[in-house]
């Protein structure tokens, strides 16, 4: 700092400076020492500056290296991204081409589907038409079968219950079908069902069970003459009754009575008991009965067995008459059974009395019940078949434009036989028309094919 001050002084002060140099020569040794002390500090500072510069250079070098590496990585990543982008573009192009081809195929399939759908719709319409016609025919055949079953039940067995069940089944089928063209048939069946329900029916099962009971009583009831089926009348109850009667006659003696009174009571009791025993013995030896047919007392055991079998056969005949609705046979057989029970069986026996009561009740039961018919339903079926036949003939007949002109006359000059439905041949023979099943022709009904 002293040196700088010396250097900055102006030139007009040189004498003063010289004086000062002379005065400063003395302390030169001290400034030299100070400079010597400052040199190591400058070296250290220089070394520090070199280290800082080296560190800065190393940092710059490392940063540049890192930047180059990052730049290289970014370049590689950009190249890979570009390759990926090119690959994605290629894939997208392929996908676009595939989508275009699929779109073309979809358009083709749509057109094919529309064509197929149109064909399916036309087939469904045709099938629906055929199904409607076929279902009507099947339904009519089923209804005809059920009506025939009802007619058989009424005609053969007279079972109104089974006939009602068959007609109710036909009603249910018509209700499910809901065909307006079959409304008249449904009304006819409803009317027949109502008439059958209004008829007073006979409980065939109950009457048949009572006939079985009557047959069992006929086989076990005692005859006037004991046989193998009823060897004899059980007299145990009668003996017990007589003994009870004898016991009731005897009265206990009064212990306070006199001896002659007690003797008189004892003698009366002995006489009553003796008379009861004698009457019992005489009753077992002798039997007085009033018999309408004297031949009933002359039956042998074999004849008695044949009589029982004959009566059981008549019971079976009455059952058949009940099932077949034959009131004349029923009445005759029941009258024979009532007479046989009254003339050949012991009417005092409990089983005989039960058999007589049951036979009288059955004989009083009338099985002559007039059942209605199902002719209305059958006529309605015939009308439906005739209408279907006419509709089919009209649908299958050629139009007026397709009919060829007649060669041998005007259109109005046809043969009267042909007008009536017959066809005249060249040899003079005439073929009558074929009537549809259930259709009337000249007052006759054609047979129905089931």
UniProtKB/TrEMBL annotation:
Biased amino acid composition, Low complexity: 14-32
Any one GO molecular-function label of the UniProt entry: methyltransferase activity
Ranges that cross the membrane: 41-62
Pfam families hit by this protein: HemX (PF04375)
Keyword match Lyase: no
Coiled-coil intervals, chain numbering: 75-133
Biased composition (Polar residues): 437-450
InterPro entries referenced in this protein's UniProt entry, alphabetically: HemX (IPR007470)
Positions of the UniProt region annotated as Disordered: 1-32, 388-450
GO biological process: methylation
Keyword Secreted: no
Keyword line: Coiled coil, Membrane, Methyltransferase, Transferase, Transmembrane, Transmembrane helix
Protein known as: Uroporphyrin-3 C-methyltransferase
Organism: Eoetvoesiella caeni
């Amino acid at each position: 700092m002293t040196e700088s001050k010396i250097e900055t002084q102006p030139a007009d002060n040189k004498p003063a400076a010289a004086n000062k140099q002379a005065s400063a020569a003395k302390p030169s040794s001290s400034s030299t020492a100070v400079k010597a002390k400052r040199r190591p500090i400058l070296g250290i500072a220089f070394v520090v500056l070199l280290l800082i510069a080296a560190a800065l250079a190393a940092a710059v070098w490392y940063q540049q290296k890192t930047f180059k590496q990052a730049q290289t990585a970014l370049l590689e990543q950009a190249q890979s991204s570009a390759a990926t982008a090119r690959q994605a573009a290629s894939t997208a192009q392929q996908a676009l081409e595939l989508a275009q081809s699929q779109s073309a195929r979809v358009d083709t399939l749509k057109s094919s589907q529309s064509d197929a759908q149109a064909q399916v719709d036309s087939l469904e319409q045709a099938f629906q038409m055929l199904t409607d016609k076929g279902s009507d025919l099947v339904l009519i055949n089923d209804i005809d079968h059920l009506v025939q079953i009802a007619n058989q039940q009424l005609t053969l067995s007279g079972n109104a219950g089974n006939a009602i069940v068959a007609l109710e089944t036909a009603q249910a089928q018509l209700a499910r079908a809901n065909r307006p063209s079959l409304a008249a048939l449904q009304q006819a069946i409803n009317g027949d069902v109502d008439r059958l329900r209004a008829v007073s029916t006979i409980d065939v099962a109950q009457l048949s069970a009572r006939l079985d009971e009557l047959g069992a009583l006929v086989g076990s009831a005692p005859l006037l003459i004991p046989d193998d089926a009823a060897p004899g009348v059980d007299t145990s109850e009668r003996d017990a009754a007589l003994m009870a009667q004898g016991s009731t006659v005897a009265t206990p003696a009064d212990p306070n009575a006199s001896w002659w009174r007690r003797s008189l009571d004892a003698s009366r009791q002995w006489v009553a008991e003796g008379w009861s025993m004698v009457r019992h013995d005489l009753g077992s030896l002798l039997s007085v009965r009033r018999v309408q047919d004297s031949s009933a007392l002359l039956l042998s055991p074999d004849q008695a067995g044949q009589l029982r079998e004959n009566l059981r056969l008549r019971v079976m005949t009455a059952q058949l008459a009940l099932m077949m609705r034959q009131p004349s046979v029923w009445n005759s057989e029941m009258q024979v059974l009532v007479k046989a029970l009254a003339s050949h069986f012991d009417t005092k026996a409990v089983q005989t009395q039960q058999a007589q009561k049951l036979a009288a009740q059955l004989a009083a039961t009338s099985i002559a019940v007039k059942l209605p018919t199902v002719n209305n339903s059958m006529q309605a079926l015939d009308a439906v078949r005739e209408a279907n036949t006419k509709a089919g003939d009209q649908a299958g007949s050629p139009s007026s434009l397709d009919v060829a002109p007649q060669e041998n006359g005007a259109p109005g000059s046809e043969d009267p036989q042909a007008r009536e439905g017959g066809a005249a041949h060249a040899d003079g023979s005439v073929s009558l028309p074929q009537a549809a099943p259930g259709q009337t022709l000249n007052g006759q009904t054609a047979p129905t094919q089931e």
